[in-house]
Amino acid sequence: MLRDPSTKYRPFPPIALPDRQWPSRTITHAPRWLSTDLRDGNQALIDPMDAEKKTRLFDLLCKVGLKEIEVGFPSAGATEFDFISGLVRDGRIPDDVTIQVLTQSRRDLIETSFASLKGAKTAIVHLYNAVSPAWRQIVFGMTREEVKAIAIAGAKVLRDEAAKQPDTDWFFEYSPETFSTAELDFSVEVCAAVMDVLCPTPDHPLILNLPATVECATPNIYADQIEWFGRNIPDRDSVVISLHTHNDRGTGVAAAELGMMAGADRVEGCLLGNGERTGNCDLVTLALNLYTQGVDPRLDLSDIDEVVNTVTYCTNLPVHPRTPYAGDLVFTAFSGSHQDAIKKGFVAQGQRNDGLWEVPYLPIDPADLGRSYEAVIRVNSQSGKGGVAWVIEQDKGLKLPKRLQADFSRHVQALADETSRELGAADIWGRFEATYLPRAGDRFVLRDYEETGTAGQRLFVGHVSVDGVDRSISGRGNGLISGVIDALGETGPTLDVVDYSEHAIGHGADAQAAAYVECRTADGRTVFGVGLDSDIATASVRAVLSAANRA
Length: 551
Description:
Elements: E1 32-35, H1 37-43, H2 51-64, E2 68-72, H3 78-89, E3 98-104, H4 107-116, E4 122-130, H5 133-140, H6 144-163, E5 169-177, H7 184-198, E6 206-212, H8 219-232, E7 239-245, H9 252-261, E8 266-269, H10 283-291, H11 304-315, H12 336-351, H13 385-396, H14 402-419, H15 425-436, E9 444-454, E10 457-466, E11 469-477, H16 480-488, E12 495-505, E13 512-521, E14 526-533, H17 536-549
Parallel strand pairs: 1-8, 2-3, 3-4, 4-5, 5-6, 6-7, 7-8
Antiparallel strand pairs: 9-10, 10-11, 12-13, 13-14
Helix pairs in contact: 2-11, 3-4, 4-6, 6-7, 7-8, 8-9, 12-13, 13-14, 14-15, 16-17
């Protein structure tokens, strides 16, 4: 890398728009969406999709609610042409979906594009040619007028070919390709010339797509370009301003959002951000960004795993585990403080009456996307007591008292350090059983018991195995637990009860009970016991014996 990059790279010039309005606007409704997964996304693959994969992805796009789908580049070859014409011929296009095809501004390519759509109920033909200085001077060696003439000539062919198929409701889209690095006045000039040929109206508008073909500036620059264009294009009510952002600088979604604030009506992109180089605008991220702001995206992403699995299969591209909303780890917390905050957030959420979502670290309810809460908190060596307690509660229904959470967390931490891997629910439950529940070799094992007496004067008589020998022990107290503690004094440790709690697990006749006891030994140590049983009284006896076994 250069010590002084300014000797090689120039900063992108700002747009002269001192009265820009977009920064004070908010997005209040979803844009018109266009998926270009089957065109821009497909042409970016090492191994382009075959007909089976294209069909599977097309069906997914329709299922999630996309109403405009760019299905290919029919003049690129027989595979593309046959797939597109097959969609039309086989009646696979839903009545509320419009397909779109892309073509360069050449007569033969445009004619082939129209031929692929023969018989379609409605369709969009998307014409483009590059207009920026680098393309004019380096790639084409053309003047402004020559480049504009290409666009005009292509528009005339669009008009004439559409007239030959009057049974199809035709719409047109024009892209001044490389818009984001072109002179704004020239982009408007070329688009206006195309409008003069196609004569759009408010009832039948022309789509003007303004691509950031290569993202070369910050998103605010792109928003300025969009607002400037919208102010200066003639007959604004007869055009639909469309965005097609790329992610070369990592801000494709942000550029689309600011472009919408700047007045754009439509967004093109791909599910999960596939596309040339660093990809297109990620439609999933953008749609769910809207959703988390209370705006209906008009896309159904309630089964995000189906979207991920289908796109992965069709494109043979992995989805990064940190991909917003869709990655395997985006609703997962390993950090102890994060886990504790999420756990408290879910508790508070359950107590709310207004239905509003407010859980720390989770900008969206995973359930809205078909994800389960069990996956939210996962445990490794960085995890804290809150995360461990959450897994136990979600998996087994045990609501551990805070000090027991801290005690058990030490045992889980030791296991994580020993194994040097993420711990699953089975690992955690196994360590919980080994630490607090009955196990081979326990000194005290409950066989049976009975309790008699009046309030404040209770007698506990237990049939208990002590050091492998069955025997009867008895004790008195003002309640069952104090009676058990007194009975243990005959053969076991001296314990003082510091805290006790209990709760039901589940509902109805099959509900279980859990009891937790915190005790202090004669030498000042703290021990915990846990009891599980279908009877809450028996669970409390088991909890005291659990503590005695660990004293």
